From TrEMBL:
Functional pathway: Polyol metabolism; (R,R)-butane-2,3-diol biosynthesis; (R,R)-butane-2,3-diol from pyruvate: step 2/3
Similarity annotation: Belongs to the alpha-acetolactate decarboxylase family.
GO biological process terms, semicolon-separated: acetoin biosynthetic process
Protein name: Alpha-acetolactate decarboxylase
UniProt entry keywords in alphabetical sequence: Acetoin biosynthesis, Decarboxylase, Lyase
Matches recorded under InterPro entries: Acetolactate_a_deCO2ase
Catalytic activity annotation: (2S)-2-acetolactate + H(+) = (R)-acetoin + CO2
Documented EC number(s): 4.1.1.5
Length: 213
């Protein structure tokens, strides 16, 4: 049975659950591709090929420490069973629509986790500087974050799609984090355009919360 593992739930996280409750080291025992955030929203997490990257509030990337903690993260082992070739897309909604059309027989039943690689015409990302307790609402924090627009950049989208049965556990629909090929830039994807992407995804039929210590 194919499983997506996660630390905490999206419901708990969005209700100011920003305290780290599991370490990066523990998270990586459950997979080598995924994303999330760090304690007190200290940057966006991108896990690619087993390496945990951290995009700071300026969307500049470094490798995270294995003792860093996460309040919410999604991960799985990367054993793709679905392969996609993408043509032109003009926006994040267009990209999501085309991906759903290619997976239309399974999108109501299964989760997908994987990567899209290629050159992007334009991509807007954001990340977060750490916040202090008592925490504000997530929307208020994200709403004032700096956005960075990157043009003509090669890299990888790490993506997860969850169906409606996952509501409360995870984000319903597609969710992407970006990492540039040179590992210098990254963050949560707000907007995007481009074409000619190669996608590899794994379909999963369950979500399991991991135990943390």
């Amino acid at each position: 049975m194919s499983t997506i593992y996660q630390v905490s739930t999206f419901e708990a996280f969005k209700n100011r659950g920003f305290d780290g409750c599991g370490s990066v080291k523990e998270l990586l025992k459950h997979g080598d591709i995924g994303f999330g955030t760090y304690h007190a929203l200290d940057g966006e997490m991108i896990v690619l090929e087993g390496v945990p990257y951290k995009a700071d509030g300026d969307c500049r990337v470094k490798i995270a420490d294995e003792n860093d903690r996460t309040p919410f993260a999604t991960i799985s082992d990367f054993k793709p069973d679905t392969y996609i070739e993408m043509g032109e897309f003009t926006s994040i909604s267009d990209l999501c629509r085309q991906l759903d059309e290619q997976q239309r027989y399974q999108i109501h039943e299964r989760c997908f986790i994987g990567r899209l690689d290629g050159c992007f015409k334009e991509i807007e990302v954001h990340s977060v500087w750490p916040v202090e307790s008592p925490y504000e609402a997530l929307d208020e924090i994200v709403g004032r974050q700096k956005c960075v627009t990157l043009q003509g950049i090669t890299g990888t989208l790490v993506g997860v799609r969850c169906p409606e049965w996952a509501e409360g556990k995870n984000f319903v629909g597609w969710h992407f984090h970006f990492l540039s090929k040179d590992h210098k830039w990254g963050g949560h994807v707000n907007q995007i355009s481009g074409g000619q992407l190669t996608g590899r995804f794994k379909s999963c039929n369950q979500i399991e919360c991991v135990e943390h210590h």
